[in-house]
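for the record, two folds in this file. i put them one after another cuz i was lazy. first one right below, seq on top, structure tokens after. the second one comes after a little note so u can tell where it starts
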Amino acid sequence: MRKSLSSSDRRSNVLNLAAVVFTAAVLASSAIAQEVAAPVIDNTGSVENPKPTWETQKQARTFVLGIPAPRGQIVDRNGKPLAQTRLSYNLAVSFPAPLDWTDNRILAFARQQITLAKGLLGRDIQVSDEAILNHYKNRGVLPMDIVEDLSPQELGVVQRGLTPNLILRQTYVRTYPQGSLAGHIVGYTGREAPLSTRPIENGDLIFSESEGREGLEQMFDNELRGQVGQLYVTYDANGNKTSERIAKPPVPGYNVVTTLDIDMQRICEEVLAASCKRGAMVIIDPNTGEILAMASQPGFNPNEFVPIVRRDVFDRYNNDEANPLIPRAYRAAYPPGSTFKTFVGFAALETNTITPKSQFDCPTAFTVGDHTFKNWKKTGSGNLNFVEALTQSCNTWFYQVGIKLGAPSLIDYAHKLGLGRRTGIPLRAEQEGNIPTDDYMLRVHRREIKKGDLANMAIGQGDILISPVQMAQAMGVIASSGQFHITRLVSQIQSIDNKVVAAYPDRLRETIPVSPMVDKTLREALKDVVYDGQGTAHSAQVKGTTVAGKTGTAQWGPTNKQRTAAWFTGFLPVDKPQYAFAAVYEGEPNDNTVHGGSHAAPMIGKAFRRILKLKTEGKDAEQAESQKDKSGSSDEPATPTVDESN
């Protein structure tokens, strides 16, 4: 059951963060001073030094500087943090007033402080002469950062060696406490812009703000940013600070509450990492449309991208042949292979093109015009009804039914199920996929859809492309008997005091009429794929529940580098589904041993054995199951039949 996000624990966590980040704003602002008298608190709550004398005031200049606000959190459905703001310490050089030194004296002083810093930290520090002189002449009243984001060990060393001219400045840095977990979804931040090098002006920030660069960080950047505060700082003619006051405290950004379950997300990512070099897994609640897990393999650690990404880190990710920066769960689309037969059967049954009792022959080959389409089995299976044909994944049976159904109905039902259309989750560059239409065929192949195309489409081949999140969504519609709940990744936006400022509730996108007979037939067929002796997904069985699903295997890419997408998609339990899922395994180029039954179905079995143990028996049981998987020992059933159909 979903934990209330307004619980006392959740409120305590959020308010504790507010206290930390507000303290950071105060400390960061006061760190501007070279030598600051102890501040006092007036009756307005503002921080202010004793007022300067009239002789000082008449030559004073006051700057209104901006205090960046801490970004809000990104959390899972139970309030567990995926992205937070932490305090960061920069080592900076503070130049003494008055600011009237020659270039040589400026450089000599700065180099002396940098040499001292090198000795403290035991590492090289590079700052150009140009940068030093530019800072001194334009912004010398402010400290000049020479080392950013000190590690805890470095901070301890530096604190023992600080001088009036070598000081610490506090800033905010984004941190991802779960590391690489859900990295593609959460995204990362980067500096909006470096601090200005021109002469200091009103409105300048005391340190750089960050902006979302990927994932939810990017899509909800405005909500996460918060409101910049104002710091009044007064200097005399010589550049000595005479007073400072926080006129307007920064307001922390809103918190983004996702639909993700961290524990389920972690299980999916671990199973993928142990099972394949490239792949994806998505789990959706078919009764609400909420995405519970959306994993892509390989992943990346967003902590390596803040406060800036180093060149060696970028090169490592960019040069990796597995493309770890691509979120395969929603930004990649694959030919669906035999999984698409589920949707063809649904359309044929619901349009009365066939009935549950209709039988068609399952020969070894089927000819359309001058082209012969083959079945994956070397022997014929005789006359089969829909349940038997889906269980055995007979290609030649579905060639006939696809042609009989016709392109308009096939395309219409595919679109009704959300295939070939973006789900609308708030992530940039979501893959649209493709369901070929006459317009598409004319544009790409200069002809309309023909019978041969229909035969190919009926088994999920040709130009059909589906993303893993689309596949899980479509299976969710089947699982909920035609109730198409809008797929959601974010449930609400909250203020720091837990007030809901925006909500994304459960809503129906469409209701597809499904007769009780069709509903029963589909469930029976998908169940038999996993449990019948002729089925192709025995390794997806999970003790204590009943899994329904369909395997699929499809090739794509140039002939000399053809890759295989091995699929398994479905839902569980069969009668009252709680989870709809899709898993895809990307094979290596020209590896013909990869199939949905042998590679994708076992991943779902492993994941749900751990998920259900976690939900029913708790963390200890799940961890034991995780170790069992890693050791190669498992209670998963043998797999006598492998779906090699397509």
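(here's the note) second protein begins now
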Amino acid sequence: MRIATLWIGLLSLLLLLPGSLRAAEETEQHLKVGVLANWGYLQAEKRWQPMMDYLTDKVDGARFSVRPGSFEELNAALEAGEIEFIVTNPGQYLYLSNQFPLSWLATMRSRKHNGATYAIGSTIIVRADSDYRTLYDLKGKVVAASGRHALGGYQATVGLMQKLGMTPEEFFKEVHFLGFPLGPLIFQVRDRNIDAAITPFCTLEEMVEKGVIRAEDFRVINPSRPAGYDCQVSTQLYPNWSFAASEEVSYNLTKQITRALFELTPEHPAAIEAGTQGWTAPISQLKVIQLFSNLHYQKQEMSKWDLLLEWMEANRKWGVVIAMLFVIATLYHFWIEFKFRQKSDTLVETERELKRKAVQLERLHSAAVIGEIGAGLAHEINQPIAAINNYSEGGLVRLRSQTQPDTEMLALLDKINQQSQRAASVVQRIRGLLKRRETVLERVNLLTLVDEGLSLMKLELERHRVQIRTQVKGEPYFAMADRVGMQQVLINLLKNSVDAMSELSGHQAEILIELWFDEQRVHLKVIDNGPGFADDPQTMMATFTTTKSEGLGLGLAICSDLVKAQDGSFSIRNNEDGGGCTAEITLTRANEA
């Protein structure tokens, strides 16, 4: 009976044990401690995880783990609340304390140098076979350091150079920040990729101790070895690493951690693995504060661009990916903008084309109306012209039948008869144009055509006091043309020139008619010295486009159509000298009869 009761009790205890363990885990705090990974992430975890296990054993209800990282990564982690503690050099501690409230718990005692608490400085290393003996010999050379915020890896050297009247940005040719781990700094010097390396205190000796380099291959610039210290240093020494807590950590927890750190003995495995003889109360940071004050640290904070470049150097793969994404996004943006502009231009051009079509439609409608009116007028005018022609012919017959006819009256009636016949031809030509009949070409003497046109315009030219000059170039010949149509074109051009020049007062109006006969084509030009066209002359040849207040805008359009129907070309332009315009007609030479 007692045995059964015992077994039931044990079974109940076993069933309750997992629940108790889970409850304990739920109440246990998981705290992360950020540490500088100056020898790489794996090495940092190996070095500091035993210390975290030690704190886990000493502090009730808390479990500690390591969060290794670079200066920038630890800054970001602390800002994001991803770590509660940080183990770092006093330079970064002061930098962070200006941005976040931190509590300084303890300062680490170095396992070397008889447990010294001043164990941070810079060692400037060059090749042993180089010509560099002093810091002055490195002027204009290429150097490398771990990081811009590294107290021992860079800032201590900057403080030394400032005392010597040097500025790194002007003194060195280039300064490369290689980040962590520290080994590549020495390897870059060994491989002659750089002239010198700025390394934290004891970096050279630790690498020699590990057997990765030989001490005789390197030389320390501006060397010194303080009494009781095991390594050479180029600058003065500053306080060792510190253990700091964020403001989110409770007072009771920080008190337990501080007590646990002070109780750590040099013989404890955690102290041996971390390379420390233990921890002591925080020591004065006056030297670091003075250093930063001399460097104007607050004024020398890195710009966002410098931070971006440093981050890209430390994370080159991600930097390349981001750069590629930026380039692709930029190209895509330009492509979208190009397509948008292309579509916009297409829409604008379509709108313009629609407006042109609307204008053309309106002109075609007007042309249709004019065509109907013109056909009716031509039909009606044809009858009185026929009557004038019959009357003039009857008068000529009666005068000629007389024994002594009146010669002046006979000449007058003969001119009336000729003009009535010409008017009839013009009417027939207009009717043919309106009905789109095929133009009949014949051999035409342009010299005679010009003389007849000037004879018809004689009274108009005299009334407006217009001087006419003619000029012939080349050997004259017959041209293939529609005689009546060409007569219409010439009269219209002369009338346009006279009207344009009549608007100018105190101006000697002149018209030059130039005929140039080349081998196959004849060029007829009507050149005036009037005001010319204010707009593009080519637009004046469009139907219903005119500059006259009472004009219909049909003259030049009809002239252009008539000349093109005769296999010729018609153009109009302002003169280059800025006065007047030139109308040019080109016709084909007629074959020899």
